[in-house]
Write a structure and sequence with these properties.
It is built from two helices and nine strands. It is α+β, with helices and mostly antiparallel strands.
Length: about 220
Amino acid sequence: MKAAAVLKKTGGFTLLELLLAIFIFAIVISALYGAYISTLNVADTTESHAEISNKARTAMDRITADMGSVYLGEGSFFRSQKQELSGYKIDTIAFTSTAHIAFTKNEQPSGFAVIEYKVQQEGDTQLLQLYRVDIPFRPGNMEQTVKDEKGFLLCDGLQAIRFRYYDLKGTEVDDWQSAKVAGKELHVPAMVEIELSFTDAHEEKGLLTFKTAVALPVLKNSESN
């Protein structure tokens, strides 16, 4: 009788004990789930930032290389235009450069080119795509138009593309229009600041912005336009 009574008393759990065990289990699972979700969010944010950073670095490297090789000889020019496209702020720019890139075997591997950075909108998202147009030309020729050329897609997912120009005195200029014809000296900015803003859902303002600047090989006696 005594053994049966002991077995009866220790053979199971009370309702209170079960509820307490379930409560503790729920707390542990909630903590583990929260940590798992946080880890996933950090991983997603890191991956997103890395992808956007790679886009920005590739675009910045190409633009700075083109501008660092700006051509100042006869028939050269440096022109920009500020505009808005469906509420997005964009700047386009075109100039002569010695940074021509050949994409086919029939093209001249290097030399002079008309370079233009132009913008189009993506069909689905309406975000901005930055294209690089590269047309070879011979020094001394009249400037060539590149408006009908689509060019090479440099990066996408953009909300803003801005160029800011500085003359030799350090004065900021919103726009720049200059050309060299019939011996007239070409005035180019002393420095160009480049700003690219990408859409990023992981940022508070929904934007991830990158900036850089490139010094142009201006002549000592050049002045702003």
